[in-house]
Design a protein that fits this description.
The chain contains six helices and 27 strands. It has 421 residues and is of the alpha+beta class. The chain has a five-stranded antiparallel beta sheet, with helices on one face. Strands 2-20-19-18-17 form a five-stranded mixed beta sheet, with no helix packed on it. The protein has helices spanning 17-41, 278-283, 288-296, 370-382, 386-394, 398-406, and strands spanning 11-12, 55-58, 65-68, 73-81, 97-101, 104-109, 115-120, 125-129, 144-148, 151-157, 161-165, 171-176, 184-187, 192-196, 205-211, 218-222, 238-240, 245-248, 254-259, 262-270, 306-308, 312-319, 322-329, 334-343, 357-360, 363-369, 413-420. The longest helix is centred in the N-terminal third of the chain and has 25 residues, at 17-41.
Length: 421
């Protein structure tokens, strides 16, 4: 199976002739660069040759093993219970995003209350953004949140606009668009917004970037009718490390890095004989037939679920119903495939099935309802001798045990925060 490095096409709305020429030349350079990558990678029967700057991730399911948290994360775990001591503070189970910024935590409930709850870093409820409606300063839907210049920016809003709020949740202003724009991020590296919008228009692009004034539009990844895309919000397609911004899209086998306004191939998956033929999925009916195949029989493909740092790439994969956690050591160029749960050998508490939330660069983790975390504590108590349990709960497992006790009657989540090595 060959590695697919998508040729990049870049369109721009710049009207200055010199800028047009510069963008045109830049486009041709990156098209040539992507073409060189493809030529060097070769066909199905060849191993990809060395390509400067491209990190190749070889995936061999036969090498899957058990894994421990200490292999990939620092030796301390933080537990933050988002307290529900008032009706306003109660959260639905399906929070789509949790964002840390300075001394605050922002939780996005996109499908439930269509609101954003604001907590402090200890988990105390502060306020919320609840502006559902059709008037000025209101929204019917939203899909993402970014922090830009000490303001909250609501993205993927319907009607077609972007909205600004203070860090405390007060509405400030809004900007309307003629075309639909979806979720995304703001890059401090080049002071640009990068937004993903699902499309089926052959004249449209999946990714658009703007400067802070929403001018100088640059477009990436045109829609190709012959390719497999699926229906995804794209909320997690952009990921930040401490130094870079990345884009990875479901069904692509390449993750791109933003470099001077361009999306440059950076990491490429090689699934070898375990890779799923995407044309096989495309031939299936887009309804239940395709969903059943993906959930029960599909082989490896990139699902668009990943976290990244300068040292590691983390991705969730599935192979014939079997969940796989991929850890790629970028410094050692080594792939680790972990089956089932990661064993918590740091404090002996909760064993995560997968690391799915990026709270801020360098901080990732999971969210577990307080009641469920308490059940884990009771299971540990039942499986340990009394003296052993008491010693663990007072020492190594103290933070876990104390948080589980406090949140034992709560449906609100406990955020379990791991620090990347």
């Amino acid at each position: 199976m060959s590695l697919l490095l998508q040729p990049l096409r870049i369109a721009t709305s710049a009207k200055i002739p010199f800028l047009k020429l510069w963008v045109f030349l830049r486009q041709r350079f990156y098209l040539l660069l992507a073409g060189i990558f493809i030529a060097l990678l070769g066909g199905c029967d060849q191993k990809p040759k060395f390509v400067p700057g491209l990190e190749r991730i070889s995936v061999d399911i036969s090498q899957a093993r058990t894994g421990r948290l200490s292999e990939f994360f620092e030796s301390s775990i933080e537990y933050i219970w988002l307290e529900d001591d008032s009706e306003e503070a109660q959260l639905n189970a399906g929070l789509q995003k949790v964002l840390f910024h300075e001394d605050r935590i922002y939780t996005l409930d996109i499908y439930g209350c269509k609101c954003i709850h604001i907590f402090d870093k200890s988990g105390k409820y502060l306020s919320k953004i609840d502006a559902y409606g059709e008037g000025p300063g209101q929204y019917l839907d939203f899909d993402d949140l970014a922090v830009v210049d000490a303001e909250l920016v609501l993205l993927g809003v319907f009607p077609r606009k972007i909205m600004w709020f203070s860090l405390e949740g007060e509405f400030l202003r809004e900007h309307f668009f003629q075309e639909r724009v979806g979720p995304g991020v703001f890059s401090d590296l080049d002071q640009r917004f990068y937004l993903y919008t699902e499309t089926r228009d052959p004249e449209d692009y999946f990714v658009k970037s703007f400067n802070k004034s929403f001018q100088d539009t640059i477009k990436h990844f045109p829609y190709h009718p012959e390719r497999l895309y699926g229906n995804f919000s794209g909320r997690n397609f952009f990921q930040k490390s401490t130094k870079n911004l990345y884009f990875g899209m479901t069904y692509l086998d390449t993750i791109y890095q933003v470099d001077k306004g361009n999306l440059v191939p950076k990491l490429a998956f090689d699934f070898g004989k375990y890779g799923q033929d995407l044309d096989e999925i495309k031939r299936l009916d887009a309804g239940m037939e395709r969903l059943d195949f993906i959930n029960n029989r599909a082989e490896l493909y990139f699902r668009g679920q990943y976290l990244i740092s300068e040292k590691h790439l983390f991705a969730l994969l599935a192979y014939e119903k079997k969940g796989i956690i991929l850890f790629f050591d970028r410094e050692q160029n080594k792939t680790h495939l972990i089956e089932k749960q990661l064993t918590n050998d740091i404090d002996g508490g909760y064993d995560p099935l997968g690391i799915i939330h990026s709270f801020e660069p360098g901080k990732v983790g999971v969210k577990v309802p307080g009641r469920d975390l308490y059940k884990t504590l009771l299971e540990k108590k039942a499986n340990m001798e009394k003296a052993e349990f008491e010693n663990w709960a007072k020492n190594k497992g103290r933070n876990f045990a104390e948080t589980a006790m406090k949140a034992r009657a709560s449906e609100n989540p406990v955020l379990i925060v791991y620090t990347l090595k």
